[in-house]
Design a protein that fits this description.
Length: 356
């Protein structure tokens, strides 16, 4: 079996962060989401992985390399335009050949991995397996309508009136017959080759598509709130540790906190689940639960809760508590010392600022 990871989207819902970074490379619990996907596929026993890339392809190539760091072999498959998930399958034919494969969206995070799913697919004479999850907003996804016996009756892409609340979560298993389907369908009203249409074609032509309803958590990290939610789920699951090279003085650091190499914590309180990145300095501050501070960040005289702070940023905010923040790379937040005491901001396009 081979793996196919789709990493070609622009990530417009994560602007302004994704103006300068591929959305799949934004970290959750200090590890890029795309790396978590690669590790999930590897842990299921799949070592040959094709990565479909678009306009952020150079950055993704630089981040993943040849995949040997994670014990896999990566082949890059350029997609000139975002023409749909089924189009991505179509252009990956040379890499996939006629082998069965697992397709995974590169911005998804799922509980429990996919080893059991791949084992089930391998042990049955199925032509496809799709993963479904009950959601509150099914009209934002591809939706499956199941018959009373649990088989699939119909798949619809982003329906205005969803026939169920079961969304396709972006994890699929296929055999070679999917290529018949993607070559047979036509673009949707969105101008894309929809994977839901391709799977529906399989069903209508007598191929076996098995649904698996996932009962654990799953996050599509498309919006800032989704990133923070995924961060909290992953932080709950990781095993905390404190690197021997970390320096902690006059501070309270509870047992649910991970402190990475070279981090320094002085006169501060850190409550987990939380992760403090490599080379980061925390001084005279409070870091609350479900916060991820990436590498080489400086936090001084600050209170931060349930937030993500990316690398090389410096934050000093003695008169405010930061909550629910997603702060990008190389950001500076500092108090203004000169009078009058005003707020001075340089905010990029599509930024959000909430003030009290």
């Amino acid at each position: 079996m081979r793996g196919l990871v789709l990493s070609g989207g622009k990530g417009t819902r994560l602007y302004p962060l994704t103006y300068t970074r591929a959305k799949q490379l934004i970290p959750v619990a200090n590890k890029p989401v795309l790396v978590r996907v690669i590790e999930t596929i590897r842990d299921a026993g799949v070592a040959e992985i094709g990565v479909v890339i678009g306009q952020t392809g150079a950055e993704i190539r630089e981040a993943l390399g040849d995949g040997s760091r994670w014990g896999v072999a990566i082949t890059y498959i350029p997609q000139e335009q975002p023409l749909g998930l089924a189009h991505a399958v179509k252009i990956a034919r040379d890499f996939l050949q006629d082998e069965p494969f697992v397709m995974f969206l590169g911005d998804n995070v799922i509980q429990g991995g996919i080893s059991g799913l791949i084992r089930d697919f391998t042990n049955h004479a199925w032509n496809s397996q799709i993963v479904l999850k009950a959601v509150d907003n099914p009209s934002s996804f591809g939706v499956a309508k199941l018959r009373p016996d649990g088989t699939i009756e119909q798949l619809i892409e982003k329906p205005k009136e969803p026939p169920s609340n079961l969304a396709l979560v972006g994890i699929y298993m296929f055999d070679r017959h999917i290529f018949e389907a993607v070559n047979a369908i036509t673009p949707s009203w969105r101008g894309e080759l929809e994977i839901t249409d391709a799977i529906q074609w399989l069903i209508e032509h007598g191929y076996v598509v098995s649904p698996h309803v996932h009962t654990g958590w799953w996050i599509d990290t498309g919006k800032p709130t989704d990133m923070l939610e995924a961060n909290s789920y992953v932080l709950d699951e990781i095993t905390p540790y404190i690197d021997p090279s970390a320096v902690i003085e006059n501070s309270e650091v509870d047992r649910r906190v991970t402190v990475e190499a070279g981090a320094r914590i002085f006169n501060s309180t850190i409550h987990g689940p939380t992760i403090i990145g490599e080379g980061t300095l925390i001084e005279n501050s409070y870091i609350g639960p479900y916060t991820s501070i990436y590498h080489h960040v400086t936090i001084k005289s600050c209170e931060i809760d349930r937030s993500i702070v990316l690398e090389n940023s410096a934050i000093e905010s003695p008169n405010a508590r930061l909550y629910g923040c997603l702060i990008g790379r190389n950001v500076t937040v500092q108090p203004r010392q000169a009078r009058p005491r005003t707020l001075t901001m340089n905010l990029g396009d599509y930024s959000n600022l909430w003030m009290v």
